[in-house]
């Protein structure tokens, strides 16, 4: 969705939701599409869930970090384990969270509100937006009655677009976060920790921008994928 239509949608929703962090987000101005990367603030976010079906999975953890002034702000890092009454199931083999940890985790609504606070006036960045954005949309619908209306940058989609433009798309070319960090000369981190993956995504985005036009010449419109 273009920023123009997203802005119209947010204005319409703002007339229906008049309190809470979503109302604050809706009333905040969207960054201009011609803003440079340096002049735009981004929230690089990752979530871990109990499954791959966004319609039924539970949110188990969330981590995010802000990119501002063309730099990753490690001081902005935030990590939350989310309370779940049904446990982690087989997903524990992926993210390593235990039933005990999620049993005493934070309230899902409070964590969602924290995400909305972080996203106010900023752009959401995820690697492979499909599950994460669908999950956030569902949680937002359940809590506020509407999907999460924010601009999105998907680093996986950006890389796929770059490869297609250069005719370098191969069936066996991996677009996973770790493998893409290798492509851009970034070190490997332990995967499937929400905060570590959020930082990994932020660094990957920075590397992508640096390899193209840089933080001052890359514009927001060049990065938006949703």
Explained architecture:
The protein has 226 residues and is α/β, with parallel strands linked by helices. Helices cover 43% and strands 16% of the residues. Helix 8 packs parallel to helix 9. The radius of gyration is 17 Å and the shape is globular. The model has no long low-confidence stretch (mean pLDDT 92).
Quick gist of this model?
By secondary structure, the chain is α/β, with parallel strands linked by helices. It contains 10 helices and 5 strands, in the order ααβββαααβαβαααα. Strands 3-2-1-4-5 form a 5-stranded mixed sheet, sandwiched between helices.
- Helix content percent band: 40-55%
Report the total helices. Answer: 10
Low-confidence region ranges: none
Radius of gyration: 17 Å
Strand portion, in percent? Answer: 15-25%
Given the helix and strand composition, which structural class is it?
alpha/beta
Q: Mean pLDDT across all residues, rounded?
A: 92
Shape: globular
End-to-end C-alpha gap: 5 Å
Helix and strand run: HHEEEHHHEHEHHHH
Q: Biggest sheet: strands side by side, in what order?
A: 3-2-1-4-5
């Amino acid at each position: 969705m273009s920023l123009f239509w997203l802005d119209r949608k947010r204005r319409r929703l703002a007339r229906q939701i008049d309190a809470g962090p979503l109302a604050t987000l809706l009333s905040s101005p969207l960054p201009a599409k011609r803003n440079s990367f340096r002049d735009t603030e981004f929230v690089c976010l990752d979530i871990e869930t109990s499954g791959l079906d966004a319609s039924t999975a539970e949110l188990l953890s969330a981590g995010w970090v802000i990119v501002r002034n063309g730099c990753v702000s490690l001081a902005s890092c935030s990590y939350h384990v989310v309370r779940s009454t049904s446990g982690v199931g087989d997903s524990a083999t992926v993210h390593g969270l235990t039933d005990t940890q999620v049993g005493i985790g934070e309230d899902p609504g409070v964590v969602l509100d924290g995400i909305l606070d972080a996203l106010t006036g900023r752009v959401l960045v995820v690697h492979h937006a499909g599950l994460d954005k669908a999950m956030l949309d569902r949680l937002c619908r359940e809590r506020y009655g509407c999907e999460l209306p924010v601009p999105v940058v998907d680093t996986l989609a950006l890389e796929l677009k770059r490869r297609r433009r250069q005719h370098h798309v191969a069936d066996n070319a991996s677009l996973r976060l770790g493998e893409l960090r290798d492509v851009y000369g970034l070190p490997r981190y332990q995967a499937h920790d929400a905060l570590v993956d959020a930082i990994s995504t932020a660094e990957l985005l920075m590397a992508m921008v640096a390899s193209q036009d840089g933080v001052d010449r890359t514009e927001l419109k060049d990065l938006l994928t949703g």
